[in-house]
Write a structure and sequence with these properties.
Rossmann fold; eight-stranded mixed beta sheet; globular
């Protein structure tokens, strides 16, 4: 039986945050990549909810959460996560973070160690100064509406080589459109944080799983946003962590291979 996932909003001093919740048992918080939303976990959540209490939130500035009143930091996003857990009466949780969400999850584990059970860092790529500048430029402008509607086709074609012409591309484009006309705040947060991440992530002490898709780096490498030689950083900085690479997994593998992701996640969470 697959569990029903409900949606709700909660209020912060900076605006409303949408979250999804379902299941019961030990909690796990899911944090999505940019420019997605909690929809990144649409396939995974009902399956995971059979064993756990599963929570996912739209990061402010993306999905159906409000745009933050200023450029948010990764630490601000971690505070939002704490606020949500407090709202739900959850003292301690495991966290799964995908790319942007992984940076936030790592900062959460560094800043609030007493609130974290286990940590899963999924496709959390390392960046250097040159790439940091490119990410900053890309996300500070955000996407612009074109009078002739050509922006719609541009977004449709942006990922088509990796995720095809189907429903998943449609869902990604919907997420894109929700952040048009403003900076893409979570992307900016990571751009401002990624070089400091090494120092912050050294503070992570909880059991940690580094989960990678074999082909996940490809789209970023292609547009010059990440280099292969910068990708061993997590294993070096979190020596107590485990690593799993999913064969033919892409940046969108949480949607494309939810059963495989589920198995790795549950095995790690249930291990004593």
């Amino acid at each position: 039986m697959s569990h029903r996932i409900k949606r709700a909003f909660f209020d912060t001093e900076d605006g409303q945050i949408l979250y999804r919740i379902g299941g019961e048992g030990e909690p796990i918080l899911l944090l999505h990549m940019t420019p997605r939303s909690s929809d990144e976990f649409k396939e995974l959540m009902p399956m995971l909810a059979e064993k756990k209490l599963v929570i996912a939130m739209d990061l402010m500035g993306l999905g159906d959460s409000d745009k933050p009143p200023r450029v948010y930091s990764v630490a601000d996003y971690a505070k939002n996560a704490i606020a949500l857990l407090d709202e739900l009466g959850i003292k301690k949780t495991s966290i799964f973070g995908s790319l942007t969400g992984g940076y936030i999850a790592g900062e959460f584990a560094a800043a609030y160690p007493e609130r974290v059970d286990k940590l899963i860092l999924c496709n959390v790529f390392g960046f250097d100064t040159e790439e940091q500048d490119k990410i900053h430029k890309r996300y500070s402008q955000g996407y612009q509406v074109k009078e002739d509607g050509s922006h719609l086709m541009a977004q449709w074609l942006a990922r088509v080589n990796y995720i095809g012409n189907g429903e998943l591309n449609h869902r990604c484009v919907l997420d894109d459109l929700k952040c048009f006309g403003s900076p893409i705040y979570p992307g900016l947060a990571v751009a401002n944080y990624c070089l400091a991440a090494k120092e912050r992530f050294r503070l992570i002490k909880c059991p940690t799983l580094v989960l990678l898709g074999e082909k996940a780096l490809e789209p970023l490498e292609k547009v010059g946003l990440a280099k292969p030689e910068n990708q061993s950083w997590l294993q070096e900085i979190i020596p107590h962590g485990q690593s799993v690479e999913l064969e033919s997994g892409t940046m969108w593998m949480v949607n494309q291979m939810p059963e495989e992701v589920l198995k790795v996640v549950v095995d790690f969470l249930d291990k004593q």
